[in-house]
Specification:
This protein has four helices and 47 strands. The strands form eight sheets. The chain has a 22-stranded antiparallel barrel. Mean pLDDT is about 85; it is low at about 1-20 and about 100-110.
Length: about 750
């Protein structure tokens, strides 16, 4: 088993409870206790072991004073070790900070659960057959409802906590990063915070994913109002050669190949992914993706490493668009039919990045990374058909040509505030975007004019610090942080600036070390920036919107079971939203949402586990005005569950459920609603022999008819037809089966 290098937070404190020995508390990356962790003390007279109890506490008796090598290990987490000096009155707390890169077991999530954070490790992504990026998001759960917008090639539409975030960048936003590279694109050709770059992500290369359920960490800024999804890719692979071939319904085919050398002091790989599918659509999707991904990491010494990454991706697709559902219901249009056969798009993108990290003797760490990214984006859409132009139609092309550069630095410092142990995280970010963006009417895929066109230059600089302090002998953890972001928007011959402070705070309190119960309070302010074109055209309107997120809850983790529940309150400020589809501007007033959520993790047996979660929005509405207007276009109930089998006679797999309720599409008319759905997906893996696996994936196991994205607006489907305000939807895939074989050769 190869594990990532990691840092543990070790806390020494004076104690009068031990005559001679060592004791303390073992916690996971979320600060929650870990039962069953092995703590080992190695000295000149031999080795002493202890196992943590249900509340995470361990004790090693009869330890002589002197220097020892301390190590700790726990299932699913990277082992940690360091030298310690033990006195007769020593206590030592240990906190793991990273998930292990394990090879055999399939662990869907960390054992403990808590309100503010969710973790996912590599196994769920490595052993599941994916053909679309929305399937990656379905593994995250965490109250995120993600739907395809036009059948696969376009960015996902994100809905969370009662808000529709469009493609990730409005109403607070959901910030998504891959290896510290922000995926949300500001001032984008199709929508603010667009997440199309995720198309170049290969699931087999994901190491782990951290989902933060609010703007609670100071290291994250723009688009983080409703949380953060931070995806970390591998630095190496457990086998020198990996080959996966898969095929299935709707002319679906995919291949993945990777080579990872087994070299001293070097972690590296080069990988290629190619895929194609037509989907179930009458206008075949012809969705083709090609991705190349490479990494080279060299250990300069035991405490330093330097690495380089290269990522290139391209995708081409056609789509049926969002079709009028009244025509589907009347039988005039098939559910997988189309009106404009030229809808679709093409994207080219490449990113080169470098990263450096150093671990210091006292437990401090420093890391820095930089990236350079280039992308070309063309999207061909027709939402309203002949509404505005009965002669030529309303089809349009959106173009985005972008050069991005960025630098991130972070220093982690283990220190004391008086007699209290503390951990300081401080750093800075710089992000620069040079963009050529335009909107053009079209005939087929040929532009016929110019609606809007601009060169934009947007920069974002930020600095932050967050300190965490342990009190009451580990029973309380207090954290506070502060971040400042400064933006410069240049477009259409004008320049405007904007800046905003964001505060963070949290507390975790365990009333009794003998009872596995923790109480949580979290607060964070997040921001999301506006499109530079809207900022310049309307400098009197807000340039940065804020989201104040309050959360209070409790969690309990005992043995194989973990449960958490919390209530949240979200206030979102005024926001200007530039509409790239027609160059208009929409001004949204302040809004509020509140509700609650629960999570459950249960190890039923050694091989069978259950994970589940539910988010319920009690209300979501716009504040102010002479009458109540509700926030629309997002569900008020999101649920997920997964029954997972791991390592049983060569079998692994999962049965997953995701569900949303029906939801309103108009803030004032409650009769206009989108339909909800409950969908089951099945994945199975059978190890045939060492290094050979058979894979089966069945999406939409019950063949449910449903729509992933639904919107309400006016359209006219023929030049002389009536103008009708109607619901338009993107049909979801029906029952879809994919089979595959995976070869893993020359294990390290």
């Amino acid at each position: 088993m190869r594990v990532l290098k990691t840092i543990a937070v070790f806390t020494f404190a004076a104690s009068v409870t031990l005559a001679a020995g060592l004791a303390g508390r073992v916690a996971d990356p979320q600060g929650q206790p870990i039962p069953g962790a092995i703590v080992r003390l190695r000295g000149p007279d031999g080795v002493l072991d202890a196992t943590s109890d249900a509340s995470g506490h361990y004790e090693i008796r009869s330890v002589a004073e002197g220097n020892y090598q301390l190590s700790a290990s726990a299932p699913g987490l990277a082992s940690v070790s360091r030298e310690v000096a033990v006195s007769s009155t020593a206590t030592l707390d240990i906190q793991f900070t990273e998930i292990a890169a394990k090879k055999e077991s399939m662990v869907i999530s960390a054992k403990s659960v808590e309100p503010a954070l969710d973790l996912r490790n590599s196994e769920v992504f490595d052993r599941t057959l994916f053909t679309r990026d929305d399937q990656v998001f379905h593994q995250l759960d965490s109250g995120i409802d993600a739907g395809q917008h036009e059948g696969g090639g376009k960015s996902l539409e994100i809905r969370r906590f009662g808000f529709n975030l469009d493609h990730g960048g409005v109403n607070g936003g959901l910030k998504v990063l891959v290896d510290d590279v922000q995926q949300n694109q500001g001032t984008q050709g199709h929508g603010q915070g667009y997440l199309g770059s995720l198309k170049s992500l290969s699931p087999e290369l994901i190491q782990d994913v951290t989902v933060i359920n609010g703007p609670f960490r100071a290291e994250y800024g723009d688009f983080s109002g409703l949380g953060v999804v931070h995806i970390k890719q591998r630095e190496t692979l457990p086998d020198q050669f990996t080959l996966r071939l898969q095929g299935g319904s709707f002319n679906t085919g995919r291949g993945f190949f990777a080579y990872s050398p087994d070299a001293q002091r070097v972690d590296a790989y080069v990988a290629y992914e190619g895929s194609y599918t037509d989907g179930p659509f009458q206008n075949p999707g012809r969705y083709r993706r090609d991705n190349v991904n490479a990494n080279y990491t060299r250990s300069l010494d035991d405490n330093q490493k330097l690495g380089f990454r290269l990522l290139f991706g391209r995708n081409d697709f056609y789509s049926s668009g969002q079709i009028p559902l009244d025509l589907v219901n009347s039988g005039e249009l098939d559910r997988f039919g189309f009106i404009d056969p030229t809808d679709g798009g093409r994207v080219r993108m490449g990113t080169f990045s470098s990263y450096y990290s150093r671990q210091f003797a006292g437990g401090d760490t420093f890391k820095a990374d930089a990236f350079l990214s280039r992308s070309l984006f063309d999207l061909y859409s027709n939402f309203t058909y002949f509404l505005n132009d009965p002669v030529h139609g309303d089809a349009f092309q959106q173009h985005d040509s972008r050069l991005q550069e960025g630098v991130n630095t972070q220093y982690t410092h283990v220190h004391k505030l008086g007699a209290l142990q503390a951990l300081l995280v401080a750093g800075g970010n710089f992000h620069d975007n040079e963009i050529n963006v335009g909107l053009y009417p079209r005939d087929g895929r040929t532009p016929t004019g110019v609606t809007t066109r601009a060169n934009a230059h947007v920069t974002n600089e930020a600095g932050y610090a967050q300190d965490s302090v342990t009190l009451l002998r580990g029973r309380m953890l207090l954290s506070g942080g502060l971040r400042y972001d400064e933006f410069r928007f240049a477009a259409l011959g004008g320049v405007e600036n904007a800046g905003r402070w964001q505060g963070k705070g949290s507390a975790v309190f365990t009333p009794s070390l003998s009872i596995p119960l923790s109480l949580h309070v979290n607060y964070g302010r997040g921001i999301n920036s506006s499109d530079a074109r809207g900022v310049i055209e309307h400098p009197e309107l807000p340039r940065l919107a804020t989201t104040d997120f309050y959360q209070v809850g409790a969690s309990s983790n005992f043995g194989r079971f973990g449960i958490s529940a919390d209530a949240f309150w979200i206030d979102h400020s005024n926001e200007q939203v530039y509409i790239p589809d027609d160059g208009s501007l929409e001004f949204k007033g302040p809004s509020r949402a509140y509700g609650y959520e629960t999570k459950l993790s249960a190890g039923i047996t050694r091989h069978l586990s259950l994970n589940a979660g539910m988010t319920k929005i009690a209300n979501a509405f716009f504040r102010g005005g002479d009458h109540r207007v509700y926030v629309d276009s997002a569900p008020h109930f999101v649920a997920n569950a997964a029954l997972t089998l791991a390592g049983w006679h060569g079998w692994s797999g999962s049965l997953r459920m995701r569900a949303i309720n029906h939801y309103r599409l108009d803030g004032e008319d409650p009769s206009i609603v989108a339909s909800g759905h409950t969908v089951f997906d099945l994945g199975l893996v059978k190890q045939i022999r060492r290094g050979v696996e058979l894979n089966l994936s069945v999406d939409n196991l019950t063949n449910r008819d449903y729509y992933e994205t639904q919107n309400y607006f006016e359209s006219r489907v023929t030049p002389d037809g009536p103008v009708i305000a109607r619901i338009h939807g993107t049909p979801a895939y029906p029952l879809t089966a994919v089979v595959g074989v995976t070869f893993r050769l020359r294990g390290k």
